[in-house]
Write a structure and sequence with these properties.
This protein is mostly beta strands. It has one helix and 13 strands, in the order αβββββββββββββ.
C-alpha cells in the first residue's frame, strides 16, 4: 500500500501541472523579414555592363495589423535596412567638388556600394491559421529608401579611385515590390522608380540607371 501511494503522489502532482495550450486568436504574422536579391540594372547607358554578382540584402521589422476577422488580410508598415553591391563598369571620379561618370574600359575591380534605410508599407493576404505557420502568402507594397552611406571603388592597372558619400546620388529612392510564396520560400521582386544618380550624364547620355531586384524573402514571426 505504501509503495502504491509513493508511486501515485508524484503522478498526481505532475498531472496537476499540465495545462491545455491556448491558441492565440489575435496572432500576428511575419513581423521580421530578410531578403537576398540580385540587382538587374535597368535604363542602361550605351556600353554599360554588369560584371560579377551584384548582390542585395535587406532586413527589418514590420508591424502586422490584421484588418478582417479571420486575420487573413492585413496592412503592415515598418523599418529596415538595405545593402546593395553593384558590380558594373561605370567609373566615378570626384574632381573639384564635381563628379564625373564614364564607362571604364579596362579595370580589375569596380563596384558601387549603397546603404539605405528603408520604410516599407504593404497590403498582405495569407491563408494562415493560428495552429500552423505554413501557409500561402501574397504581400505587395511600396517602399521608400533613404541613402545613408555610399562607396564606389574603381581599380585598374594604372589608377585606383575611391569615392565616399557621393552627393550626386539620389538620397530618396522608391518603388513597388511583391513577395509571393509558401512557408519559408518566397519569391521577391522590387523595382526602383527613381534613378540611382541625379542629373548626371555619361557623354551626352542622361544617366537614368535604376535597380530591379529579384530574389528570395524570408519571414519570421
Amino acid at each position: 500500500m505504501k509503495l502504491l501511494l509513493f508511486l501515485w503522489v508524484p503522478f498526481f502532482c505532475f498531472s496537476q501541472e499540465i495545462k491545455p495550450v491556448e491558441i492565440d486568436s489575435l496572432y500576428r504574422e511575419d513581423q521580421f523579414y530578410m531578403g537576398l536579391t540580385y540587382n538587374l540594372m535597368q535604363n542602361k547607358p550605351n556600353n554599360f555592363a554588369q560584371n560579377g554578382f551584384s548582390s542585395g540584402i535587406t532586413f527589418g521589422f514590420m508591424r502586422d495589423l490584421p484588418i478582417n476577422k479571420k486575420r487573413t488580410w492585413a496592412i503592415a508598415t515598418g523599418l529596415g535596412y538595405s545593402y546593395n553591391n553593384l558590380k558594373q563598369n561605370i567609373r566615378i571620379e570626384n574632381t573639384n567638388s564635381d563628379y564625373n561618370y564614364s564607362i571604364g574600359e579596362e579595370f580589375d575591380k569596380n563596384k558601387l556600394v549603397l546603404h539605405y534605410l528603408e520604410l516599407p508599407i504593404e497590403i498582405r493576404w495569407r491563408n494562415s491559421i493560428p495552429e500552423s505557420h505554413k501557409f500561402w502568402r501574397i504581400y505587395t507594397g511600396f517602399k521608400l529608401n533613404y541613402l545613408i552611406s555610399n562607396l564606389s571603388k574603381f581599380k585598374s592597372s594604372t589608377e585606383s579611385i575611391t569615392v565616399r558619400n557621393n552627393t550626386s546620388l539620389n538620397k530618396l529612392v522608391f518603388g513597388p515590390y511583391l513577395a509571393i510564396g509558401y512557408n519559408s520560400i518566397n519569391i521577391y521582386t522590387y523595382y526602383a522608380l527613381t534613378p540611382i544618380a541625379k542629373g548626371q550624364k555619361i557623354g551626352n547620355q542622361d544617366l537614368n540607371l535604376n535597380s530591379f531586384n529579384i530574389g528570395f524573402q524570408f519571414y519570421i514571426l
